[in-house]
């Protein structure tokens, strides 16, 4: 009996929220009518994409309510409503997710109304009986009924709100287009960085080296000592140019990553940084098979960028790097004890991390409240 009461209480809360949402949807009809009239009259066409965004939020709230009852998340599949008005109008009309939400909204006007009308009979029944003990007297019949009503409502909503294969495909295509564009942007930025480093560093030193060798050649016959001094300076510049060239090569793909793997490369990175860095390894990553080269490189550069940001911007003294092998992927977490406040748009390299990871269908989570700490978590899918 106690379990049935608790379940009926959950069902009652769910149905009350459904009834409230249904009432709100009936009020929302006014917004729909204004949008239709404004769109037909052209002058109010801008209302259409805004109304579609509101419908998405309402449907999203319903998905969360349904997930709270079933424990199974209902995915969303929408195309982005951005760009010029013409593009947003076309997306709002053609997006399969919009048609899906409208179908659910129309259906909810019917079965939501049934919930709205039936719920008061359950809530006011005990009052009519005079005491709440009437609930217990009718429990063998009423409690399973109210739970069943909630199950039916959730089943209808799940069936109507679950994205169709067409909507999922459209969302996936848009996601791949975005990640491809980000990957191209990241690649172009990397090429510009390499070009800048070669032009401003290595090339400048090689030019100076060539000039000193030329001066040494001309001074050799009449001032051998000066020529030897110029040759010695040229040798120093050659060593500096070679060092800078090696740094550029490491920026493309560190040789240590190929030789020692991700764990060894990250440990070497931690030892050479400006922070006291601890590296923790879990999940058999150190002893098991290595992840694919692209995954290793993405994880390494994410860790390197995060540690560089922490050393330059966080004001912290310590950092912890956690590397973990997952069942179907790789997880890397960098935590520092700095002041926080990291922002994707702040020029701290987080955008570059997101682009590089997104190109491999990975995910990046950043937590950096004011006062710290900053935690950057990267997950990359791969097959072991």
Polypeptide structure, described:
- About 2% of the residues have low confidence.
- 70% of the residues lie in helices and 10% in strands.
- The protein has 3 domains: 162 residues, no CATH class; 70 residues; 127 residues, Heat Shock Protein 90, CATH 3.30.565.
- With 384 residues, it is of the alpha+beta class.
- It has a 5-stranded mixed sheet with strand order 1-2-3-5-4, with helices on one face.
- α4 runs antiparallel to α6 and α10 packs antiparallel against α11.
- The protein is built from 11 helices and 5 strands, in the order αααααααααβαββαββ.
What's this, in brief?
It is built from 11 helices and 5 strands. It has helices spanning 2-40, 47-70, 85-94, 96-129, 133-137, 139-161, 165-219, 224-252, 255-272, 293-314, 350-358; strands at 276-282, 318-326, 329-336, 363-367, 374-381.
Which helices and strands, and how do they pair?
Blueprint: H1 2-40, H2 47-70, H3 85-94, H4 96-129, H5 133-137, H6 139-161, H7 165-219, H8 224-252, H9 255-272, E1 276-282, H10 293-314, E2 318-326, E3 329-336, H11 350-358, E4 363-367, E5 374-381
Parallel strand pairs: 1-2
Antiparallel strand pairs: 2-3, 3-5, 4-5
């Amino acid at each position: 009996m106690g379990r049935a009461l608790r379940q009926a209480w959950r069902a009652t809360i769910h149905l009350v929220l459904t009834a409230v949402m249904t009432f709100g949807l009936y009020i929302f009809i006014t917004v729909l009518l204004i949008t239709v009239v404004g769109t037909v009259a052209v002058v109010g066409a801008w209302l259409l994409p805004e109304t579609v965004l509101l419908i998405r939020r309402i449907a999203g709230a319903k998905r969360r309510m349904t997930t709270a009852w079933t424990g199974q998340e209902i995915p969303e599949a929408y195309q982005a409503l951005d760009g010029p008005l013409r593009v947003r109008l076309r997306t709002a009309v053609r997006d399969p997710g919009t048609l899906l939400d409208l179908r659910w909204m129309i259906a909810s006007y019917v079965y939501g109304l049934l919930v709205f009308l039936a719920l008061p009979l359950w809530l006011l029944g005990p009052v009519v009986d005079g005491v709440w003990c009437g609930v217990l007297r009718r429990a063998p019949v009423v409690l399973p009924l109210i739970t069943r009503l909630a199950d039916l409502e959730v089943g209808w909503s799940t069936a109507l709100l679950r994205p169709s294969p067409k909507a999922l495909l459209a969302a996936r295509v848009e996601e791949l287009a975005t990640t491809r564009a980000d990957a191209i942007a990241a690649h172009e930025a990397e090429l510009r960085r390499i070009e800048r480093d070669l032009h401003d560093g290595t090339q400048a030193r090689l030019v100076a080296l060539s000039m000193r060798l030329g001066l040494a050649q001309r001074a050799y016959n009449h001032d051998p000592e000066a020529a030897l001094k110029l040759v010695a300076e040229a040798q120093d510049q050659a060593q500096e140019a070679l060092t800078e060239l090696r740094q550029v090569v490491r920026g493309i793909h560190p040789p240590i990553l190929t030789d020692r793997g991700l764990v060894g490369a990250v440990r070497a990175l931690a030892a050479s940084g400006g922070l006291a860095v601890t590296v923790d390894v879990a999940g058999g990553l150190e002893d098991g098979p290595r992840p694919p080269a692209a995954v290793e490189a993405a994880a390494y550069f994410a860790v390197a960028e995060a540690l560089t940001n922490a050393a330059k911007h966080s004001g912290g003294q310590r950092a912890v790097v956690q590397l973990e092998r997952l069942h179907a992927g790789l997880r890397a977490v960098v935590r520092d004890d700095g002041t926080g406040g990291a922002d994707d748009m702040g020029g701290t390299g987080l955008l570059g991390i997101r682009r590089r990871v997104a190109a491999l269908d990975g995910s990046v989570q950043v937590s950096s409240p004011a006062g710290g700490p900053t935690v950057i978590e990267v997950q990359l899918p791969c097959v072991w």
